[in-house]
Structures are given as C-alpha cells and as structure tokens.
Amino acid sequence: MAFFPGFTSTVRAMALALVALAGWPASAQMAKLPAAPPGSAVATFAGGCFWCMEPPFDKQQGVIATTSGYIGGTKASPTYEEVSSGGTGHAEAVQVLYDPKKVSYEKLLDIFWHNIDPTVTNRQFCDVGSQYRTGIFVHNDEQQKAAELSKAAIEKGKPFKEAIVTPIAAATQFWPAEEYHQDFYKKNPVRYTYYRTGCGRDARLKQLWGSAAPH
Fold first, then answer.
1. Residue 175, exposed/middle/buried by CB under 10 A (0-12, 13-18, 19+)?
2. 20 domain-assigned
3. Helix residue spans in the chain (DSSP H)
C-alpha cells in the first residue's frame, strides 16, 4: 500500500468514505471547546491521527474532556480538507482538559509517549505528511520543564535504539476540528477499528514499547 506526503492515508480515506456512504456526517460544523471548570488545566499533544489519540486520554481518571483539532499552522479556522492536504502547516492534535488534582501533567506525558512513534518526522504509522507530525505543545513554563524532563527520561530508558525526534514547542492557537471527528472511536467503532488496524498503529506501538504499549 503506497502513501504520499501531503495526503491522508488510503486506509483513513476509505474509513471516511465508508462513513459517508452510511449517510454520516450530516454536516461539517466545527466543534466547540468544552467549558473549563475552575481549577482545571489544558494539555495539547500531536500524535498523528487525532481519532487515535482521544481514547488513551479519555480513559484516564482526572481527564475531563478531549477535543480533536489543529495546531501549529498559519491559517485561521482551517478545515479538515485544508489541513489534510498539507497546505496550512497545522498538525492534527488533541487538547486535553484535565483536573490537576486527579491526574498530573507528567502522567499525561507518559500516556502521550506510549501512544506514538517518536522516532519519525512528519508521519505516524501509515499517515505521511507534516500534518501527522508529533509534538508536545506546552502552555506555560511548568509544562515546558516537565516535558523536557519527560523527554530526557524517555530517551534514557527507551527500549529501542532510534533517537527521539518529537519536538516540544509553545502552544499556539488551537482550532477544534469538525464535529464528526470528535469521539470518532465511539461514534464509528467499526470504521475506527478498521482504520487503526489497517494503519498498523498497534503493531508498531508494540514493536516500539513492548509490554508498555497500550492495550
């Protein structure tokens, strides 16, 4: 199966085509960020396909909500079609709203690392292009320090030889993606599983992280 920079993978395109054939979604309305309760915090991570990055955070106690969206680009209010073409400079990302009293930022970082392939640039698994790059987008100095320490620890203790190339950068404007992308794994479990399996995500994660890979 061939994949080309600047375009979404064949597997993902087929998953979306199956959704369209089923008559869903009815519209491409952009989602809205959830209201942030007092004392909550935000973390933002890019790990390739945002469909696959919501589940590991959603099941973590202390996470209030996850939102799929776009970050790091130059165009305001980008659409999925624009981002997936590779022309806006955005990366697909998830913004995690969480309660710091129940889950630490360090724990979220650990979840992030073990759900990505941090050894490649401008791709994740079968998806190729800068829109699928990995990245930790920090919102303050404390997150910056924690991310740097986490990256150093992963580099030192990783069970593979390849270098860690995932960058740490200051968070810029985050644009929520279309509503039909939110909770895709819940709304379309069969098509989500088809995409995730076909893209080789779990096989590669197991190869990289061994017993520490998500289950």
1. buried
2. no
3. 10-21, 50-58, 80-84, 105-113, 141-157, 184-187, 189-198, 201-209
Residue 15 forms part of a structural domain: no
**CATH code of 169's domain:** 3.30.1060.10
Q: Which domain holds residue 37?
A: 28-209
From first to last of the 215 residues of the chain, give the pLDDT tens digit: 233 344 456 666 666 655 554 455 545 799 999 999 999 999 999 999 999 999 999 999 999 999 999 999 999 999 999 999 999 999 999 999 999 999 999 999 999 999 999 999 999 999 999 999 999 999 999 999 999 999 999 999 999 999 999 999 999 999 999 999 999 999 999 999 999 999 999 999 999 999 999 97
Residues that are catalytic: 49
